[in-house]
Amino acid sequence: MTLLAFIVVCLCVAIGASENINYIILPPNPLPPEAPTCTSYSGLCHLAYNLTDNGNSYQVYHSEQEICRCPGGKQCETDWSKSSSSMTRTFTNGGQEVEVKISYCKLRQPDTICRINEPALVTRGRGAFTFEIVSDFSCRCYRPLFAHRSWREGDYDYIEYACGKPRCGMNRLPSSECTTITWNGAPDMLNHTYVCRCRRGEECTSGLLPTAEKTTVVRSCERVPTSTTIERRRRRSILRKLGSGDNAYP
């Protein structure tokens, strides 16, 4: 099967002053005169995407990339508004989201429907959103795709995406433990298992990484302080230093 090359090369980021829209401008990537032919009538042939980073949306230009030409002169579907031979899925990893339109010469989805948190897709690359698909959908997923496991082999980072991800601290997963990181022989050879996604207003904590002496580290969800909470803490800290009570300041 043809690999879906998903190469993100950010040349510049410009902010449109009139519309207040962020833009990521990528170099056009035209096909050479002798472009490869897709290996089958169901081959991956084209992609396009939009990126969201920590709530900020970026409109992407020149993101379309034709992977191969469909056999028999069939045109690969490239228009965002058309979906007869394509699917649009959201990939989420580390607070970043990318909406990907994946086009096939002929769309043939698996017969089975993915269960929530079921592994559905494997990618490899250098970075969270610089990848190619090395294992296509094993089941039909209608939910956003969340990072499920990640590991490193040679020069590549592999990420296994699951179809949906349960919330931490809920009935399905009462624990607030969100990520397990395991030592795999070197500081840059760590295996991550993403157990669940934190609830709104929370994030998976950062901290020390595993070592040869302590081979496993578990991260938990913690509430993210709001600007109001931070300001109140700052005021209370000042008042304590002045010897006043906490209730002396609103």
How are the secondary structure elements laid out?
Blueprint: E1 4-6, E2 12-16, E3 21-25, E4 44-53, E5 56-61, E6 65-66, E7 86-93, E8 96-104, E9 118-125, E10 131-135, E11 145-153, E12 156-163, E13 177-186, E14 189-194, E15 202-204, E16 216-223, H1 227-242
Parallel strand pairs: 3-5, 7-11
Antiparallel strand pairs: 1-10, 2-3, 4-5, 4-6, 4-8, 7-8, 9-10, 9-12, 11-12, 11-14, 13-14, 13-16, 15-16
Looking at the structure, what is the overall shape? elongated
For this entry, what is the oligomeric state of its chains? single chain
Q: Helix content range of the residues, please?
A: under 10%
The average pLDDT score comes to 74
Record field, number of beta strands: 16
The secondary-structure class comes to mainly beta
List keywords for this structure.
single chain, 16-stranded mixed beta sheet, elongated, disordered C terminus, 1 helix, mainly beta
